[in-house]
Amino acid sequence: MTGSLLGGALLAGLGEAPGAYAVIFAVSSALRLLVALLLFRLPAVRVTVRPVLTRTLAVRPGVGAIERPILASLPRRSTAKGKPVES
pTM, whole model, 2 decimals? Predict the structure, then answer.
């Protein structure tokens, strides 16, 4: 939203000439490239993917399958000390 407001303000300041649109495009492209380069500085996040079993409750032509997770198939959460969390 901030980008669109800044682009609108820049367009209002430069006028609606074709060159103004080119300037906005160039500024927008440069800022997007800067953000992409800054993302490489963030540390990598490791995520463990665990499958969750589901039970099919119904299959409907317009909606597809309606499924619910089988809670017993979910891995137990543990604390930092490795002990299971009591619910």
Answer: 0.47
Q: Where are the beta strands (DSSP E) in 1-87?
A: 54-60, 64-69
Residues 6+ apart with CB under 8 A from 50: 74, 75
* Four-residue CA torsion sign, 71, 75, 80, 82: positive
Q: Among 45, 50, 10, which residue's Cα sits nearest to residue 27?
A: 10
Is it the case that residue 58 has pLDDT exceeding 70? yes
Domain ranges of the chain: 2-39
User: For residue 10, what pLDDT is reported?
Assistant: 80
DSSP H or E run through 33: helix 18-39
